[in-house]
Amino acid sequence: MKKLAELYSGKAKTVYTTDDANKLILHFRNDTSAFDGERVEQLDHKGMVNNKFNAFIMQKLEAAGVPTHFEELLSEEEALFKKLDMLPIECVVRNISAGSLCRRLGIEEGLDLDPPTFEFFLKNDALHDPMINDAHILTFRWATQDEIDRMKSLTYMVNDILKALFAEAGMLLVDYKLEFGRYQGELMLGDEFSPDGCRLWDTETRKKLDKDRFRQGLGGVIEAYEEVAQRLGVDLEPLQSTK
Ligand code: ADP
Ligand code: UDP
């Protein structure tokens, strides 16, 4: 697969077109950002770990019946994906209270949420990703009612699959963010699933093993990401042949 031109460079990944108009290459960089890009640092190995972690999770989800954009790993920091027409929406499911939910609603961190909550946010850094609801999405034509229903059901389906996967590896899936896009008339899971976009706690100690270590200056960020990957059985060894 030939890399052609840079299409977009975001906060953590760079997107390239390829000689197949339906496929993109995503390069997972070491850049780590927080607070809508206000703080950015380089963390050695982060691109590699997130690339391989994401590939592992996307393959698990696909096998469990969630349509995803993942095609194949290409190199340590790059993989091939279907080119989606991304919806400007973030879907968040929470199993335990943390982050913006606590700040917004004044509730303490660490409460079990039963049933899990679901929230939509508008993907817009300048506006700090404001929370939106179904009516906003319909009024501003960001997605159709069918797409809203599908995003919700797929995001909850991902919750069932991944809560169990992380539980087996001794971790609690606290919350996570997903992005979806359109591909040939079908809605698919896009972007990435990695410790950059979810919260994971050790089940016993509740030690934070995700990007909150970076946001809160706790240190040991990449060590935590590697620990999560190792517990799940993600292979972080150098790839045999790179394309
Ligand atoms: P951000 O744009 O939030 O800074 P990234 O640095 O992760 O985020 O950039 C990756 C960009 O690529 C995001 O805007 C994401 O929506 C987009 N993207 C992810 N997967 C796909 C895909 N399969 N097709 C098209 N765009 C995608
Ligand atoms: N999240 C994300 N990208 C965003 C906003 C949130 O990946 O732009 C993830 C975040 O890592 C967490 C979940 O979505 O796992 C819920 O985030 P929250 O609303 O609590 O916001 P935060 O406290 O991270 O600002």
Keywords, please?
alpha+beta; D-amino Acid Aminotransferase, Chain A, domain 1; seven-stranded antiparallel sheet; Phosphorylase Kinase, domain 1; binds uridine-5'-diphosphate; 6 helices; 243 residues
What do these coordinates show?
It is a single chain. By secondary structure, the chain is α+β, with helices and mostly antiparallel strands. The protein folds into 2 domains: 82 residues, Phosphorylase Kinase, domain 1 (2-Layer Sandwich); 136 residues, 2-Layer Sandwich (D-amino Acid Aminotransferase, Chain A, domain 1), CATH 3.30.470.20. Strands 8, 9, 10, 11, 12, 13 and 14 form a 7-stranded antiparallel sheet that branches. The chain has a 5-stranded antiparallel sheet with strand order 1-2-3-7-6. A two-stranded antiparallel ribbon has the order 4-5. The longest helix has 24 residues. The model has no long low-confidence stretch (mean pLDDT 97). The structure holds adenosine-5'-diphosphate and uridine-5'-diphosphate. Uridine-5'-diphosphate binds next to β9, α2, β12 and β14.
Integer average pLDDT: 97
The level of helicity is: 25-40%
Number of helices, where a helix is a run of at least 4 consecutive DSSP H or I residues: 6
What would CATH call the homologous superfamily of the largest domain? ATP-grasp fold, B domain
* Total number of strands: 14
Major sheet, described briefly?
A: 7 strands, antiparallel
Distinct small molecules bound, one entry per kind: adenosine-5'-diphosphate, uridine-5'-diphosphate
The CATH topology of the largest domain is what? D-amino Acid Aminotransferase, Chain A, domain 1
